[in-house]
From TrEMBL:
Record's protein name: DNA-binding NarL/FixJ family response regulator
Record-linked Gene3D superfamilies: 3.40.50.2300
PROSITE patterns: HTH_LUXR_1, HTH_LUXR_2, RESPONSE_REGULATORY
GO molecular function: DNA binding
Species the sequence originates in: Streptosporangium saharense
Length: 234
């Protein structure tokens, strides 16, 4: 029998990636579950059929990654993402959508989602998306990333008063180089090629950046850096 605290144990290196699937269509949930359960490094820990159930299960199971529909009954995926990121900030959320309609996805990312997948995606691409998000990558195209970064930067500039902030953590020159390329929408492979280093080295730099900034995703790191004027929008 599973111990009572098993579902909320902290993840250890080598543990499978724990995934919660949320969609109001049973067929889609089943398809995603089948695609992920075939992977030895991924474990589907639960399923939910609406936003309210997603909030409750996320709080109880603390999954590493969630695959969640944007539009659902009771509570939308956007509403659910906002609450889940407030209560379980370490959970990375991938929104599922039937189209890349900009307004919905823009709101979802601002609510805390790490990226999105179209529902017509090839099922063999889903495990890779889960792994990428779990490693801190963002499933956002460069155009949307630039728009998000610009909006967050403008919002911060318009603030009349800001509460006292802790000193901004200092990043190394190489970490700043990596962060600038992340802000341009580059993935690990592209950054490695640009800087003539290995992908593993890029991953290590990204991990160090997130640790220093105490953040959970590349997009959060870029938005933070723009807000704190560590990066300039060009």
């Amino acid at each position: 029998m599973t111990e009572p605290d098993e579902a909320t144990r902290p993840a250890r290196r080598g543990d499978p990636i724990r995934v919660l699937i949320v969609d109001d269509h049973a067929l889609i949930r089943r398809s995603l579950e089948m695609a992920l359960s075939a992977e030895t490094d991924i474990e589907v820990v639960g399923e939910a059929s609406d936003g309210q159930e997603a909030i409750e299960l996320a709080d109880r199971l603390t999954p590493d990654v969630m695959l969640m529909d944007v539009r659902m009954p009771r509570r939308s995926g956007i509403e659910a993402a906002r609450e889940i990121k407030a209560s379980v900030p370490s959970t990375r959320i991938i929104m599922l959508t039937v189209s890349d309609e900009e307004e919905d996805l823009f709101d979802a990312i601002k609510a805390g989602a790490t990226g999105y997948l179209l529902k017509n995606v090839q099922l063999d691409e889903v495990p890779e998306a889960v792994r990428g998000v779990h490693e801190g990558q963002s499933l956002i195209n460069p155009a949307m990333a630039a728009k998000l970064i610009t909006e967050f930067a403008n919002m911060s500039r318009k603030e009349a008063e800001r509460p006292p902030q802790l000193p901004v953590p200092r990043l190394t020159d190489r970490e700043m180089e990596v962060l600038r390329l992340v802000a341009k929408g580059m993935n690990n492979r592209e950054i490695a090629k640009q800087l003539f280093i290995s992908e593993n080295t890029v991953k290590n730099h990204v991990r160090n950046i997130l640790d220093k900034l105490q953040l959970h995703s590349r997009m959060e790191a870029v938005v933070y850096a723009v807000r704190e004027r560590m990066l300039e929008i060009t």
